[in-house]
């Protein structure tokens, strides 16, 4: 499975996006704000846990999160470059 | 003694939903009864799926209750308070969260569960969604007590400016064990 698809599947599970499928999530769409998935601050925390638990990535700089979680594509690029598992 | 009258009532348990004493839905589908009721409301409110059981039950019960208000719904008001009671607080969310921190080798506290480890999250959810700016309280009682509940209602109506109350018993221990009995009350003033 491609990393972007894997991330979408995991996001749907941990964020309880009950009525969505991976196909509903555009790789490049913003994850936050009205135009994208509309995720909130608690969702960001869940995504941080997701990266640590599944890929061994610890995000310690809050400012970095804004770029990492801009879209599924940016998340996948970050995971591919920094994963330890 | 403050006099008040009941505008509407709702009862929700794993087997049925009653509004104003009338049976409007019964469990029986293959999917969760709570999810069935959510879809029946026809809402676009994906936050529902993120809620814990207590909030889901309280949210649905309040939606079916307030639906009875028709066009008056969602008019911002300062005079309506939200006052709920139960015995076991947010026990289910507490237990689910505990599971996420119980094993040192798999210690990943789940933020989206942690935010529901307080019973008054559901009173806030109802107040915010419906634009109620009055008092919002969730009271824990040792057991169900009409006397204690009536005293709490009396006290709530003594608050300056409170003329209406969304109130009732709301307990949810699991997807198969919950009970909401909510009422919408108005003072006779």
Give the SSE string of chain B. Answer: EEEHHEHHHEHEE
The CATH homologous superfamily name of chain A equals ACP-like
Enumerate how many helices of chain B there are, as a single number.
6
Number of domains of chain B: 1
How would you describe the overall organization of this protein?
The complex is a heterodimer of chains A (85) and B (189). Chain A has 85 residues and is an all-alpha fold. Helix content of chain A is 53%, strand content 0%. Chain A has 4 helices and no strands. In chain A, helix 1 packs across helix 4 (72-82). The radius of gyration of chain A is 12 Å and the shape is globular. Chain B is an alpha/beta fold and 189 residues long. Chain B has a single domain (4-187), classed as Thiolase/Chalcone synthase (Peroxisomal Thiolase, Chain A, domain 1), CATH 3.40.47.10. Chain B contains 6 helices and 7 strands, in the order βββααβαααβαββ. In chain B, helix 1 packs parallel to helix 2. Chain B is globular. Chain B starts with a strand and ends with a strand. The model of chain B has no long low-confidence stretch (mean pLDDT 95). The chains are: A mainly alpha (85), B alpha/beta (189). Chains A and B meet through helix 2 of A and loops of B.
Give a topology summary:
The complex is a heterodimer of chains A (85) and B (189).
Chain A lengths: L2 H12 L26 H15 L6 H7 L3 H11 L3
Helix pairs in contact in A: 1-4
Chain B lengths: L3 E10 L2 E4 L2 E5 L6 H9 L11 H14 L13 E7 L4 H10 L10 H4 L5 H11 L5 E5 L5 H13 L5 E11 L2 E11 L2
Parallel strand pairs in B: 4-5, 4-6
Antiparallel strand pairs in B: 1-2, 1-7, 2-3, 6-7
List keywords for this structure.
heterodimer; A: 85 residues; mainly alpha; Non-ribosomal Peptide Synthetase Peptidyl Carrier Protein, Chain A; 53% helix; 0% strand; B: 189 residues; alpha/beta; Peroxisomal Thiolase, Chain A, domain 1; 7-stranded mixed beta sheet; 6 helices
């Amino acid at each position: 499975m491609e990393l972007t698809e894997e991330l979408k599947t995991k996001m749907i599970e941990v964020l309880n996006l009950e009525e969505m499928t991976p196909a509903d999530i555009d790789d490049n769409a913003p994850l936050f704000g009205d135009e994208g998935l509309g995720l909130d601050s608690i969702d960001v925390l869940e995504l941080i846990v997701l990266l640590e638990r599944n890929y061994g990535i610890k995000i310690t700089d809050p400012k970095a999160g804004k770029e990492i979680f801009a879209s599924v594509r940016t998340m996948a690029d970050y995971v591919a470059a920094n994963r330890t598992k | 003694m403050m006099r008040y009258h009941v505008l509407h009532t709702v009862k929700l348990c794993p087997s049925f939903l009653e509004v104003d004493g009338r049976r409007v839905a019964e469990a029986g589908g293959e999917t969760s009864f709570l999810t069935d009721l959510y879809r029946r409301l026809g809402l676009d409110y994906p936050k529902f799926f993120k809620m814990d059981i207590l909030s889901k039950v309280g949210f649905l019960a309040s939606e079916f209750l307030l639906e009875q208000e028709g066009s008056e719904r969602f008019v911002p008001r300062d005079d309506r308070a939200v006052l709920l009671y139960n015995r076991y607080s947010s026990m289910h969310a507490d237990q689910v969260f505990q599971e996420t921190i119980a094993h040192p080798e798999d210690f990943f506290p789940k933020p989206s569960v942690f935010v529901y480890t307080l019973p008054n999250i559901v009173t806030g959810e109802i107040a915010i969604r419906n634009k109620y700016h009055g008092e919002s309280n969730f009271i824990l009682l040792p057991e169900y007590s009409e006397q204690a509940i009536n005293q709490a209602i009396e006290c709530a109506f003594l608050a300056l400016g409170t003329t209406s109350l969304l109130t009732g018993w709301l307990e949810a221990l699991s997807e198969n064990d919950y009970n909401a009995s909510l009422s919408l009350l108005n003072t006779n003033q």
